[in-house]
């Protein structure tokens, strides 16, 4: 009986530890389209951020799962970041640097890696990502939130 109680406590402790550590490894993030009800040619099914929360001064990877019905030869990825509603950062990337081009019809992943400066304030951020095709047409536009943790390289 004592072994059974110890076994259950150990299992419970291991389960709690796993639940606490999983969010630190990566997190699937809810995503919204910029225009509700818009029929974008590129559909985004999810975003995974690793590590989560993002650590200041360390690389973070944003994997965006998407699907397209049309081949995409080239394009631009425009990223706009807000902190408490205030614009703090904007950058543009060549689509072919974030995924293999040409993008064939079907499922694909945009993978963006970013290292934030160690002085970046911790907290909640909102990221808007526009994907524009080779003629500037909007292929998709998404909005999602992410968090930057308190610990940074300088803190370690």
UniProtKB/TrEMBL annotation:
Entry-linked CDD domains: PG-PI_TP
Family matches, as SUPFAM superfamilies: E set domains (SSF81296)
Any single GO BP term: intracellular sterol transport
Family annotation (InterPro entries): Ig_E-set, ML_dom, ML_PG-PI_TP, NPC2-like
Single GO MF descriptor: sterol binding
Signal peptide limits: 1-27
Ranges for domain MD-2-related lipid-recognition: 31-146
Function, in words: Catalyzes the intermembrane transfer of phosphatidylglycerol and phosphatidylinositol.
Subunit comment: Monomer.
Family from the record: Belongs to the NPC2 family.
The protein's name: Phosphatidylglycerol/phosphatidylinositol transfer protein
Organism: Canna indica (Indian-shot)
């Amino acid at each position: 009986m004592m072994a059974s109680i110890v076994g259950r406590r150990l299992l419970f402790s291991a389960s709690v530890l796993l639940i606490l550590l999983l969010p630190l490894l990566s997190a699937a993030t809810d995503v919204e389209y910029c225009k509700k009800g818009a029929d974008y040619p590129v559909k985004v099914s999810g975003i995974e951020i690793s590590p989560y929360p993002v650590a200041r001064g360390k690389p973070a990877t944003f994997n965006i799962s998407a699907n397209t019905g049309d081949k995409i030869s080239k394009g631009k990825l425009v990223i706009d970041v807000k902190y408490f509603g205030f614009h703090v950062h904007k950058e543009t990337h060549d689509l072919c640097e974030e995924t293999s081009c040409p993008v064939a019809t079907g499922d694909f992943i945009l993978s963006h890696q970013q290292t934030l400066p160690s002085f970046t304030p911790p907290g909640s951020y909102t990221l808007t990502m526009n994907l524009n095709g080779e003629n500037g047409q909007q292929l998709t536009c998404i909005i999602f939130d992410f968090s930057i943790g308190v610990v940074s390289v300088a803190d370690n």
